[in-house]
Write a structure and sequence with these properties.
Layout: H1 3-19, H2 45-59, H3 63-69
Helix pairs in contact: 2-3
Length: about 70
C-alpha cells in the first residue's frame, strides 16, 4: 500500500529488464524487494537461475559452468 515501495519495485523491475532484455522469464520476487534492513545477502535459487545467462555473458563463461557454481 506504500507508493514509495511500489515505485522502488517498479524501478528494480525496469533495471532487471534493461540489463537483460532477452530474458522473458518471470522475475523472482526476491530480486525486486528488500529485507527490512536492506542488507540480506541471500537470494533464492530462482533468483540465481534468472540471472544465470546474463552473468555468464558478462563473465565470458559457459552457462553450464555458471550453473555448476550456483
Amino acid at each position: 500500500a506504500n507508493p514509495a515501495l511500489l515505485d522502488a519495485v517498479r524501478t528494480r523491475i525496469a533495471a532487471l529488464q534493461a540489463a537483460d532484455p532477452a530474458n522473458s522469464n518471470l522475475i523472482p520476487v526476491d530480486l525486486v524487494t528488500a529485507s527490512g534492513s536492506g542488507l540480506d545477502p541471500h537470494i533464492s535459487p530462482a533468483a540465481a537461475e534468472y540471472q544465470l545467462a546474463r552473468v555468464a555473458r558478462a563473465r565470458g563463461m559457459d552457462e553450464h559452468r555458471i550453473r555448476q557454481l550456483v
